What does this fold into?
Amino acid sequence: MSDLAGGKQGGSKTGQRRRQVAALPWRAASGADGAAPPGLEILLVSSRETRRWVIPKGWPMKGKADHLAAAQEAYEEAGLDGRIVERPIGDYPYLKRLKSGVGRPVTVDVFPLEVTGEHATWPEKGQRVLQWMSPVEAALAVQEPELRDLIARFAGVELPTEERPDPVPAPTPVKVALQRLRRRITALLNHPRR
It folds into this structure.
């Protein structure tokens, strides 16, 4: 994540809640049978430290409007291009763990980003896992209740009240590395020798 705000991370030293900006990446998805009206898909990324499902976010950037900083985070963390809304559709609180282990309360302003392109490479490729999900899957995969409700409201879906499945765990770095190694070995074994 970028911190181009001169070391200031969206708040004062008086203990006030700091602010971050985030993109909520979405795209239109046609129904499974092709006849249903298009719905939405939401892209989630795994966090680097805890491997939780999150949306691309970071600190405000000096010289950039907040929505453009959110779009920059979507590019850096997930390789996304798109059209981003200038005003946030809401915010959610979370506890940011600093390298020292101390937790800091942060409020994240969320800007919807209609994804129009995905890059083959980007700055944090290989550090995160990306997954397109239905709005209900995405809402139930995130841990922050306010973000869950924000995703559901944005997509116009209702979440099950009684049957909330356990969040979908993001793959661990070891699992991702093993999957890559397995694909490479399979490719080598299936490649005819000359």
Notes: The mean pLDDT is 82. The CA atoms of residues 29 and 35 lie 12 Å apart. The chain has one domain: 18-190.
